[in-house]
Amino acid sequence: EVQLVESGGGLVKPGGSLRLSCAASGFTFSSYSMKWVRQAPGKGLEGVSSISGSSSYIYYADSVKGRFTISRDNAKNSLYLQMNSLRAEDTAVYYCARVTYYYDSSGYYYPLDYWGQGTLVTVSS
Amino acid sequence: IQLTQSPSSLSASVGDRVTMTCRASQGISSYLAWYQQKPGKAPKLLIYAASTLQSGVPSRFSGSGSGTDFTLTISSLQPEDFATYYCQQLSSYPYTFGQGTKLEIK
Question: Which residues of B touch A116 (CB under 8 A)?
Fold first, then answer.
């Protein structure tokens, strides 16, 4: 059974740092890209960052570029998000999600097929 | 690519047929996914490639569309279907989400 379990959220002051972790099990972790998606209270979903299985390809949303760093340790089946210079607008539930892939005659599709339960990050003084 | 979902909220009764739409700001072929999110829970993948049902998703859910206009239809609403539904384009990075359609009990 695929499981993703996030940890590391909490209350932090503006300008502070936090490191989120996502422990994966039930699948070959290194074979999949992974993504962090966040959801501000009462708001919609926002893709934050993603990383390929070998860490060769990394993406950041403009809203976090230069402040957040995504990484993974395939030996530990773990995904991380280092968040620095946190702002009030970073307050959200952060989900890690597995990027799966499907192929048909039109090409490849990369939806998010498994999600963790989320960890809440609150940035407030 | 911007995705606009309509309506933003929808009231319906158990047994109703419900349709919601997702419009892309430019053509995305069939590179669209739909997710269901219940309060306090993570999103769940329902449909990808605009119309392909994810394994384990009930057949009362269906998706259609191509290019810029897409629909998610629930043929006969069940109590567990009341949730917020998000579309996501899978055509070009960043793979943006729509703002959601909240399906409420009438």
Answer: 42
Q: What is the structure's pLDDT at A105?
A: 83
Q: Does B45 touch chain A (CB under 8 A)?
A: yes
Please give the residue of chain A at the shortest CA–CA distance from B95.
A47
| Interchain CB distance below 8 Å, A111 and B86 | no
pLDDT along chain A (125 residues), means of 10: 98 98 98 98 97 96 97 98 98 98 87 97 97
pLDDT (average), residues B30-58: 97
User: Which residues does residue B9 pair with via DSSP β-bridges, in sequence order?
Assistant: B102
Nearest-angstrom CA–CA distance, A107 and A6: 31
Within 8 A by CB and 6+ apart from B37, the residues are A45, B43, B44, B83, B84, B85, B86, B100
Strands (E), chain B: 3-6, 9-12, 18-24, 32-37, 44-48, 52-53, 61-66, 69-74, 84-89, 101-105
The pLDDT of residue A106? 80
Burial A30-55 (b: 16+ CB within 10 A, else e): eebbbbbbbbeeeeebbbbbbbebee
What's the pLDDT score for residue A52? Answer: 96
